Amino acid sequence: MRWCGFAMNRTKRIEAAARADARREREDSFPRLARELPGLEALSIRIAEGIPGSITEHVRHVMVASAPALFESRCATCSDGVHDYTDELLRALKSRSTPATGESPCNGLHAAGPCTCVLRYNAIATFSK
Ligand SMILES: [Zn+2]
């Protein structure tokens, strides 16, 4: 039994590491934010995510110099869904619209049906010129 538990943990660790690797590779495959949005100096995104009655909020301070032009986050409600708001937010920031707000549904599927979690963002950008 002990060995079983150990094997499980080990598998989970390997899976987590593989996920982290895959994420890094995916992030590396995107252009840098600084190149996509010349003049962008600072970007912070207030995020409210969840299902009605259970919303969590946090602020993401984006490292403009090194961050990939990729705005997505793993769904907090289901384990395999992703909120991807890259295209919308890039488009808004390219037109220098700030704050840029929008929402992104989760693309995950539960056994019971599609995940109903929604992410709402409010991105505040500072441009140098
Ligand atoms: Zn979800």
Mean pLDDT: 90
Biggest sheet, in brief? 4 strands, antiparallel
Report the total helices. Answer: 3
- Distinct small molecules bound, one entry per kind: zinc ion
Relative helix content: 25-40%
Strand content: 35-45%
Shape type: globular
Strand order of the largest sheet: 2-1-8-5
What structural category do the secondary elements indicate? alpha+beta
Provide the low-confidence segments as ranges: none
Number of domains: 2
| Order of helical and strand elements | HHEEEEHEEEE
What is the distance, rounded to the nearest whole angstrom, between the alpha carbons of the first and last residues? 63 Å
Cα gyration radius (Å): 17 Å
Number of E strands: 8
Please characterize this protein's 3D structure.
This protein has helices at residues 2-28, 33-36, 86-94, and strands spanning 40-51, 54-62, 72-74, 82-84, 100-105, 109-110, 113-114, 118-127. It is an alpha+beta fold. It has two domains: 1-30; 31-127, no CATH class. A four-stranded antiparallel beta sheet has the order 2-1-8-5, with helices on one face. A hairpin with a 2-residue loop joins β1 (40-51) and β2 (54-62). The longest helix has 27 residues, at 2-28.
